[in-house]
Amino acid sequence: MRIGFIGTGSMGGMLVRAFSQSTPPSELQVVACNRSPEKLAQITSRFPHVETAASPEETVSRSDIVFLCVKPGDAKGVIQQVLPYIRENHYFISINSAVMLEEMEAILPCRVSKIIPSITQVGLSGVTLVMHGSRMHTEERRFIEGWLERISKPIVVEESDLRVCSDLSSCGPAFLAVMLREFAMAAVRQGGIPRDLADSLVKEMTMGVGKLLTEEGFEFEDIIRRVAVPGGITAEGIKVLHPSLHGVFDQLLVTTRSKSKHHGTAEHDHK
């Protein structure tokens, strides 16, 4: 299989690395282009089997699956640029929301999808949001999702739900990291323990909770019930959290939706 990447910035470069780590070179040929040779060099120095292309057109010509990983403002221009090189049997996948699926299908003759990756794919984990165009039939959808399963858990969502879903899966790691950092810093201030110890405890705790939720079948309520014994220390701590957290995530989602509408895209800063 030949997978091409137009753009190897933050998210595009991360996807190249994730696929290169998860799939042997004998099963996957990766070709990539970028306006900045330095960014490509950073990737090829670690993964020598990644091939470079001189242009988006060359990348498309040498690929079966094409990932469009450029900035939102550049997406439509690049699509027009590579249009003469697109074959009907191509899979064309955009990783941003600058162009709707319907718009891409009106321009491109091939099968199209959109995905929203997450920084968690660095660790071959987390969620990739997936939206398919109307030309993608069941087997073709499974084919693309099968490749995404190598680096994440692909979850199909409606394009209209993209904003709020991406807040959870793609922006969420940063939101969660902010809270965890504050938790660790409070332990330093109130308990006097070293920062590295506090950070280590919070990181290991977070990994453990993640495994309970994703591997052991626990729900959020199960963990709360098992840990927060009535009248115990944890239960008292949760009483402190409730008034502070009430409505804060509602306001967060209102804010991100407003910012998204202002920019005319559902993109995130880390892309």
TrEMBL record:
The keyword NADP belongs to this UniProt entry's keyword annotation: yes
Taxonomic lineage of the native organism: Bacteria, Bacillati, Bacillota, Bacilli, Bacillales
One of the record's GO cellular component terms: cytoplasm
Pathway involvement of the protein, from the record: Amino-acid biosynthesis; L-proline biosynthesis; L-proline from L-glutamate 5-semialdehyde: step 1/1
Localisation: Cytoplasm
Keyword GTP-binding: no
Domain (Pyrroline-5-carboxylate reductase catalytic N-terminal): residue spans on this chain: 2-96
Record family assignment: Belongs to the pyrroline-5-carboxylate reductase family.
Keywords tagged on the record: Amino-acid biosynthesis, Cytoplasm, NADP, Oxidoreductase, Proline biosynthesis
EC number(s) reported in the record: 1.5.1.2
Enzyme superclass (EC): oxidoreductase
Stored Pfam families: F420_oxidored (PF03807), P5CR_dimer (PF14748)
Binding-site residues for NADP(+), renumbered to this chain: I6, G7, T8, G9, S10, M11
Record organism: Tumebacillus algifaecis
Known catalytic reactions: L-proline + NAD(+) = (S)-1-pyrroline-5-carboxylate + NADH + 2 H(+); L-proline + NADP(+) = (S)-1-pyrroline-5-carboxylate + NADPH + 2 H(+)
Annotated function: Catalyzes the reduction of 1-pyrroline-5-carboxylate (PCA) to L-proline.
Example GO biological process: L-proline biosynthetic process
Protein name: Pyrroline-5-carboxylate reductase
